[in-house]
């Protein structure tokens, strides 16, 4: 495969604006993102299975095609002439690629209340929608499973719960890219347009690290695993470039020590620092793996999330964004069972086994791992400029 020898771009860290009251904060955040979204309804990057392949030699074959059609998403006009956007990853980006079925589970709850009917793992929009808006699209391109037409806007292949290793019921990053590659080879995706005006998002958010026991203390063990995960991500980024994608956005790992699943044992009063090592090592090795790759932007989700969650016990020290949220570590929707999940229902009594807040707009997190729509706006606002600059949309 071709080698790439240029500097990997890194998204800058969030700014620190002056103190404002809550209504002004909300207005400023909306203006920052130029938002004009129509809400859609919608969990964490879900659990993990065992890895079955070394980096670069994973499940790079097989896909689900267009099976499981149960509807069509919003239409993207063929008059659109901006970047074609192709989305890969997990629940941070999925907009409907998991099948709605019974019984309800962590991998299909997003089609039901309190998530709604959009197939997104949030109360509304997710990261892929906000990046699409930067590209002057209304929402993320359609979910691959829900459409038979590949328009100029692109296509979303992300599957909640996925990672670089196999998880039952989901597709690995490699399998998602294999599906995309088949569409290119079959002529459903125009190769010339792909090479001249396309961007991909790779959103791998830490599901693989669920394979590590919670009490793992060996630095060498965690580092070895992080090297395997990040090497596989880098291999798949190169694969996207070899297929013909012009530019690639790659998320680093958010501070999942501060996700509600990790802060619940502390009654959401502090982050679980014991879970910090994996994210730190992952981000270090991912930066090393991507260094020198041409037309790759490392999207600093860690800094953007940290700008909010590090202020879990204060008002943000004057920052606009963290001061927006009354709850920075507690989720809006939480299971009544510490081992359960948002959206879980008693199968006999059909009664909800979760509680939902009155106003998601005051909560950074929606469920055990995923942000609310306003949470995603707070994350992506400071990343708007570096992403659009990388894509040449601003000077």
From TrEMBL:
Molecular-function annotations in GO: hydrolase activity, acting on ester bonds
InterPro entries: GDSL (IPR001087), SGNH_hydro_sf (IPR036514)
Signal peptide: 1-42
Region feature (Disordered): 42-76
Basic and acidic residues composition-biased segments: 56-76
SUPFAM superfamilies tied to this protein: SGNH hydrolase
Keywords: Hydrolase, Lipid metabolism, Signal
GO BP: any one term: lipid metabolic process
Coiled-coil regions, chain positions: none
Pfam families: Lipase_GDSL
Family, per entry: Belongs to the 'GDSL' lipolytic enzyme family.
Record protein name field: SGNH hydrolase-type esterase domain-containing protein
Organism encoding this protein: Aegilops tauschii subsp. strangulata
